[in-house]
Write a structure and sequence with these properties.
alpha/beta, Helix Hairpins, Pyruvate Kinase, Chain: A, domain 1, 2 domains, four-stranded mixed β-sheet, about 10% strand
Amino acid sequence: MAAASMNDIKARMRSVNSTMQITKAMELVATSKLRRAKERAEASCVYRRILQDALVSLSRFSERAASVYTEKRQGGKTLYVVLAGDRGLAGGYNGNVIRLTREVFCAKENRTVIPLGKKALEFYERRGEEILTSAYSQISSLGVSDAMRLAREILDRYLSGEVTRVELVYTRFVSMMTVVPSRMTLLPITLPEETDDGSDPITDGDPDELLRAVIPDYLGGLLYSAITEAFASECASRRTAMNAASKNASEMIDSLSLSYNRARQAVITQEITEIVSGAEAL
């Protein structure tokens, strides 16, 4: 019985050790991807800040007319752009995004969804949600041109009146250890309050035309920045999850080793006892 138990423990130790080797390899891959994703996310923030500064400057014109991009409209659909991961094994990353989306969904609203990432697409297909497009199902391969194309598609539907509000749900990358599920209203845009200091910015052209020209790039910049942050967050979450899995596997191997040594000691003690008992009988 003890020998059979020892064999079972050894088989389980081999299985756990194989799993630990896989989790360590996945952790190394996630760490490598995280470095590049972090650099890309930080670079995208520069472009976004420049566009935000331009938008703030244009909004300071004292004679700025009301813009279709800023007015709140009734009716139409609410469009949700949801960024999740392409794969699992990332801890609660995908689940936290879906949970936040459920919280911001209104029960009786007329809505449609653009899922970015394979996991988001699969989830909303299973739920039977109206999906506007599934062309962005691989978030790891999305670049600046994809974000700009998506921004134009969203703006076309917004200007036509089909969509009256656009919400973005993604994961904000704070650090390698901290990622935060977040939401952002993309349209209508909330501009800063007008100032009365009497100093309008100096521009070459009509401010309203400039504002209309900046909005598509601004929206595309927000989307690209969110995509890079979401991918960096996925890599960070997978790295953390695989690191925790490797630690748990190591602790399990230590526990199994202790059980194996105890079982082995029990077998040795039993054999010694049998030898001594046989010698006394003679």
